[in-house]
Each structure stands twice: as structure tokens, then as C-alpha cells.
Amino acid sequence: MRINKTKNQHYISQAEQKLNALGPSSNKIYKFTRHSNCYLKAKKTSITSNLSEMDAFTYDILDKGDRINLEHVFQKYENKVVWLSKFVVQGLNATHNPEHYLFELYVCKMMGLFRNPNNIEFTLNALDVLNDHRPRNQQLYLLYMKVDSANLGQIKYLSGKYGVTEQQYRDWLKLLLMVFEVSYDYSSNLLEQLSRQLFWDDTIGTSVYIYKYSDFNKGVLISDRGYVTTFNTDYTISMFNICSSAFMIVVFTNLALKVQSFLSKRNKMQHFSYLYHTVSELTHFKYMVDDDTTLKCYNQHCLNFSNKEVYSSSSSPLGL
Q: What is the mean pLDDT of the chain?
């Protein structure tokens, strides 16, 4: 881990927020706060201090204001997300190897999901398999073990603010170390390996839909959680804001259940034909343009799924 002086640590990056700002050169974004299922009028807020906390990911404070935190890891993904977002929105085709760019953007969004303190309980539950694991790197191991005993003043405040116990907050900090800092197969971290397995697992069908809008005033929302999800036994749907005029829907389908259902209705020859077609399109994507019905639905999901706030480049987003 690298030492730096960063205290104001964003859990939804300034880069992503600026893709949803009031204008190309603006550093402000509209904020809507929920009160008893009602939303106040749009309020302009500065991106510099928005969706951030002091020392949210700080593991130790050293002399002269130096800190040990995860900013250098996050910066790697934040540097990618702007050009990936613009590239994906401009348009992908077969010659671009679209799966690669969609996967890279998905990894960036998953990074934001796991590091978001609004999602602490979700992250702890989703990655509970790591509870019995420890970093093998000596430096990371010592830092990992120090988290439980470290006298970090912000933990008490932030755990109360985000509705978790102090121990849950400490467990989350340790989990972030495992996800972002521990190398897997000497090449990538666990975040990238988990995302890769989801995207190209033979038992999972992956579909990606990019919704784009020519009217920026319709306002594609961004949730304070950084994502929106819904699921059942057959599929999981995750939705992510890309910018002020686009969002992404990622659908993971349980192919085993899909094929089992199909077999109960079709003969074997039809089954093989169906299975070949399905597996050959495990990762596919489609662009949808100016689909207001889906945007309204997406924005309403953002409202309902958020912790308490949503954001937009528009003062009157569709569906709000």
C-alpha cells in the first residue's frame, strides 16, 4: 500500500460524478434527498465534497498527516472509468471487441459497489467466504490484523452514520484489503477475478444493454449506492449509471434452470439447438436509444433502492 495525504475520500468518484454534472465544465450536480418516500426539489451541490467521507478507507495515520489507505488502488479504476464510459456510449461494434470494454467498465462499477459504505452489509454478506482468509503478504497481513485494534476515530462516527456496528465497519475495511490488494495468480486482484468469473462462467448467460438518450434533460439518475439491483432464482439484474445520458443494465441468467425449464417442454434435438444458441451468446450486448419507458423505470428503481439520495445533471429527471 502507498502512503499519501488524501483525507477527503470519495466512494463515488469525482470522475463519475462529473460525467453527471450540470455541464461539461461544471463541478456541481443536482441532489435529491428522500424523506418518507418523498423527494425534495433539486439542490445543487459541489462534487468536491459530495459522496465522500474523511478517512473512509484509512488504515493508519502517520506523522505529518501521511495516511495508509486504498486511494492508489481506486485511482487505477477511476482513471479508466471516464474514457471507458465515453467509448461505450459513443458506440461499440464487433471490431472493437465489445466484451472486453464492457467487462472493464463492469469491473470499475463493481469496485464502486464494494467500496461504498452504503453497501457495507451487502458486501460483507456477498463476500463472507473471505472471512477465514488472510493476506499472505507480510505487510498486508500486519495491516489486516491491526484493523481490529487500531484507534481510528472515524470508525465510530462512520459506523453510526451508515447504520452498522464498529466491528462490521472494521470487517469491511479488512475485506476491502482482501478484494483490492491481494494478488490472484500474480496478475490481478480478487475483484477482477470475481468479475471475470461472472462474465464468462459457462453456467451463466450474460447480457449487457446500453441505454442512450439524446435529450440530456431527461436525467439519468445515479444512486448514492452506486448501483441498482433486482433478482430472482432465474436471473440477477444490475443497473449502473454511465453518464448524464446513458445507463447500463447487466443481466446474469442461470442457464441450468433455463435449460431445465426448456427440457420439460421440448425434445432433445430442440434442446441441443437451443443450448448451442444460448452458450454461443453468453456475453452479448445491445444498444437502446431514447427508450423513455425504460429510463422512467430505471430512475424509479434508483429512487427506491437508494439509501437516501439520488443525483442527476437535470433538475427534473424523468420519473422523479
A: 86
Q: Give one word for 287, left, alpha or beta, with left for phi > 0 and alpha for psi -120 to 50.
A: beta
Q: What is the rounded distance in angstroms from the CA atom of residue 48 to the CA atom of residue 316?
A: 23
Torsion of CA 22, 23, 25, 29, to 10 degrees: 10
Q: Which DSSP string do the residues of 191-236 spell out, in sequence order?
A: HHHHHHHHHH-TTEEEEEEEEE-S-GGG---EETTS-EEEE-SSEE
Phi, psi dihedral angles at 253 (to 5 degrees)? -105, 135
Residue 141 makes CB contacts below 8 A (sequence gap 6+) with 134, 135
pLDDT at 280: 39
- The dihedral over CA atoms of 118, 70, 180, 74, expressed in degrees to the nearest 10, equals 80
User: In this predicted model, which residue has the larger pLDDT, 213 or 100?
Assistant: 213
Q: What is the mean pLDDT of residues 282-305?
A: 89
Count of C-beta atoms within a 10 Å radius of residue 98: 18
Task: Say which residues have a Cβ less than 8 Å from residue 51's Cβ, sequence separation at least 6.
Answer: 10, 11, 12, 17, 224, 311
d(CA 126, CA 120): 10
